[in-house]
Amino acid sequence: MSPTSATATPAPARRRSANRVPFLAYVLLSLMVLVSVFPLYWMFVVSTSDSATATTLPPHLVPGGNFPHLAGLVFDTVPFVQALLNSLVVAGTVGLGQALLCALAGFAFAKLSFAGRNTLFLIVVLTMTVPAQLAVIPQYLIMSKLGWVDTLQAVTVPGVVSAFGIFWMRQHIANTIGDELMHAARVDGATTWQIFWRIAFPLVRPAAFVLGLFGFVYTWNDFLWPFIVLKSPERYTVQIAIKALQSNRAIDLGLAMSGSFLATLPLLVLFVFVGRRLVQGIMEGAFKG
């Protein structure tokens, strides 16, 4: 028997060693999923019970049967259906605007030559270092001058373009669209807009879809700016409607959790339908860099 064969690891042992790592990885991933999902489940448990459930030790982990009553109170207390529609319009417009406008700006920074291109792009990147809270006062003054205070335009227009979105699409387009393709399109007589709409945008559509979805979710969950600029209940977004469920002196946790769960349901439904495309777009952008 040769020394090599004597020291070789038996095939069954190698198979057991190869199977052990994926099993541990699945266990770790399962624990991470449980940790991530538990707050959502706990919110649902409280929304089906009452405020006492949230403070009971040991905590109750079984949903109750009080959700229809609390959900009815949510719709009776605030115009929640109108708030859901307002959030859908605002978040949908912002998501679509970011997917298109940020892709267009990213295309210009990545593939067009014009004076001050690098300087302007540097300014765009530097704006990402400024906290959003610092822009609240000047942004409110602008909305006031335009007469947009207490309108949905005030919470829609500032979000249709973002510095992160421009940076995201610029990097993706620079790594995806070759200069040879641009030159070939110009030789065929295509204009700049035709090159973007017919060639560049279809190639980067997965990245634009991911960006638009991020913009939709961020706008749907945004609280600070809508809370400042919206005054009328019929113009509330869903997060402001949840805040309106709370009184000044006490918080009904069951009622608040019911509203929060109702506000989260559209995002869960959205993720069920587009989750695969979301992961695909993120992975495609990760590997093309």
UniProtKB/TrEMBL annotation:
Domain ABC transmembrane type-1 residue range list: 84-274
Organism: Plantactinospora siamensis
Protein name as annotated: Carbohydrate ABC transporter permease
Protein family (similarity comment): Belongs to the binding-protein-dependent transport system permease family.
Keywords (A to Z) from UniProt: Cell membrane, Membrane, Transmembrane, Transmembrane helix, Transport
KW Transmembrane (keyword) present: yes
Annotated transmembrane regions: 23-44, 83-108, 120-142, 148-168, 203-220, 253-274
Membrane topology: Multi-pass membrane protein
Primary location recorded for the protein, binned into one broad class: membrane
Entry's localization field: Cell membrane
Keyword Cytoplasm found: no
